[in-house]
């Protein structure tokens, strides 16, 4: 084994691949940790952070032990870039939390509102004044994982409607009688005994 470590193959191929892989792993964990922090998952974020920093230390230690290996530096940078991309993809798949969807349309939005309410979405409609006259403004808080379904429905009723989406930090669960709120606390299950008063 020691003989293989000292070979050119290990130095210029295997070692950079190890650095590249570890960087992907730790940067992906970093992205997920940031998402957990933003979603107030204060019991999961430290656990992810622990493994993130351990992997990062291993990667840094390998780089420092091989300062004359230029390929290692390139692998480190590529791993960081790839880890960032993969982390974003995973975050999109997780789709944790809730978001506010605002829809502005010049068409009557009554049918759209009735359809969404029938599906269990809490919808608020108000009349506003736009550049070209009266508009319907529709507000709703949705789970991020329901975004595609809601937008598909919106485009079926009005393909030209203008809409915006933004994350929300906290939502009153009383506004979601049909269970359409993202109960983020379910991800904290194994750590509930750390809560105050438990």
Describe the protein's architecture and organization:
The protein has 198 residues and is of the alpha+beta class. The protein folds into two domains: 93 residues; 82 residues, 2-Layer Sandwich (Alpha-Beta Plaits). 51% of the residues lie in helices and 17% in strands. It contains six helices and four strands; from the N terminus they run ααααβαββαβ. It has a four-stranded antiparallel beta sheet, covered by helices on one side. Strand 2 and strand 3 form a beta hairpin. The N and C termini lie far apart (51 Å). The C terminus is likely disordered.
SSE map:
Layout: H1 2-5, H2 8-38, H3 45-64, H4 70-94, E1 98-105, H5 110-118, E2 123-130, E3 133-143, H6 147-157, E4 162-168
Helix pairs in contact: 2-3, 2-4
Strand order of the largest sheet: 2-3-1-4
Given the helix and strand composition, which structural class is it?
A: alpha+beta
Shape: elongated
Q: Biggest β-sheet: count, sense, barrel?
A: 4 strands, antiparallel
Q: Would you count the extended β strands for me?
A: 4
Number of domains: 2
Task: Provide a concise account of the structure shown.
The chain has 198 residues and is an alpha+beta fold. 51% of the residues lie in helices and 17% in strands. It folds into two domains: 2-94; 98-179, 2-Layer Sandwich (Alpha-Beta Plaits).
């Amino acid at each position: 084994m020691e003989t293989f470590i000292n070979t050119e193959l290990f130095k210029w191929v295997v070692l950079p691949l190890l650095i590249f892989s570890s960087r992907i792993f730790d940067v992906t964990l970093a992205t997920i940790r940031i998402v957990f922090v933003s979603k107030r998952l204060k019991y999961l974020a430290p656990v992810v952070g622990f493994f993130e920093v351990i992997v990062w230390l291993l990667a840094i230690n390998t780089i420092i032990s091989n300062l004359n290996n230029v390929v290692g530096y390139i692998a480190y940078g590529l791993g960081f870039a790839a880890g960032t991309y993969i982390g974003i993809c995973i975050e999109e798949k997780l789709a944790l939390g809730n978001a506010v969807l605002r829809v502005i349309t010049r068409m009557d939005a009554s049918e759209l509102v009735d359809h969404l309410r029938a599906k269990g979405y809490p919808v608020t409609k108000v009349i506003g004044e736009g550049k070209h006259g009266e508009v319907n403004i529709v507000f709703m808080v949705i789970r991020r994982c329901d975004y595609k379904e809601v937008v598909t429905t919106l485009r079926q009723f009005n393909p030209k409607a203008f809409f915006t989406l933004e994350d929300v930090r906290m939502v009153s669960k009383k506004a979601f009688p049909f269970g359409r709120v993202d109960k983020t606390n379910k991800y904290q299950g194994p750590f509930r005994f750390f809560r105050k008063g438990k």
